[in-house]
Amino acid sequence: MEETIPIEIGRFFIEKGKEVFGFSIITTGQKGEISQLAHIFSDRKLNIIYMTSSYRKREEKRPWIFFMVDFTGSKFKPEDIVNEINKLEFVESVRLIKPIKNGIFVDSIHFPIIVGGERSIIFRVSIIDGLINTLKRQLGEAGRAFLYHEGFRVGRNLYKTYKNWLKKEDPHLLSKIITVMSRVLGYGIAEVAELSMENKEAKIIIYDSFERRTAIEKDEQKHNFIRGILAGFFTEIFKILTVAKETQCPEDFEKPCIIHVFPKEKEIYYSSVLVE
Question: What is the pTM of this model?
Answer without folding.
Answer: 0.82
